[in-house]
Design a protein that fits this description.
The chain is of the alpha+beta class. It contains 6 helices and 9 strands, in the order H-H-E-H-H-E-E-H-E-E-E-E-H-E-E.
């Protein structure tokens, strides 16, 4: 199995290799994830999170527009939503992950639900998954095929240990118009601003 880990590294899959080494280390110790890096590597995850936050903010803005005030501030917390990676390295490292977001938003100029109000948004992204081999899938790494059953058997035999993976992003800030349709394009990492 060390061959599979080395093969992942040689194939340019450093995260897959790192997670497999952690599994083979047989400690079961939690592995901390960096959502900022992962969202940068897999733009699909960033779009997924942008959509989660957009849905929550849209709901707050719509409720606020009905009251006709000048502004409203509200906190939000999403539920956990599943995402399957499109980046091959992260797909082999994790497969699918649960993502959620929390934060606070201020919506300004609530004249009508059909206008684009300005918002100020502070938010954080959280990721969670359990590293395990529990299916009937097969994965090719560096020319060799490995099945979930083979890799999962190492845990059953006491030669490897499953573990939890989780992490929280930096707290991000966004100020700008809230689109009447479509999704927000939020900052991807610390200190980054979305394209205009």
């Amino acid at each position: 199995m060390i061959i599979a880990s080395a093969g992942a590294d040689a194939a340019g899959l450093p995260n897959a290799g790192h997670h497999l080494k952690h599994y083979l280390g047989n400690t079961g110790k939690d592995l901390i994830l960096d959502p900022d890096t992962i969202m940068n590597d897999d733009p699909g995850l960033k779009r997924h999170v942008d959509n989660i936050i957009t849905t929550l903010v849209r709901s707050i803005a719509a409720r606020s527009a009905m009251t006709g005030g000048d502004r409203v501030t509200a906190s939000f917390q999403s539920g956990w939503e599943d995402y399957t990676f499109t980046n091959r390295d992260w797909y082999l490292a994790i497969g699918s992950i649960e993502a959620c977001a929390c934060g606070a938003v201020t919506v300004y100029e609530l004249k009508s639900e059909h206008t684009e109000p300005r918002i100020t948004l502070d938010y954080q992204v959280h990721l969670y998954d359990r590293y395990n081999w529990d299916g009937k899938k097969k994965t090719e790494i560096a020319g060799a095929e490995w099945s979930d059953r083979e890799l999962g058997a190492l845990h059953t035999a006491g030669l490897a240990k499953e573990f939890d993976m989780y992490g929280s992003s930096t707290i991000k800030h966004y100020e700008g118009l809230f689109p009447a349709s479509g999704s927000l394009d939020l900052p991807a990492g610390p200190g980054q601003t979305p394209p205009r």
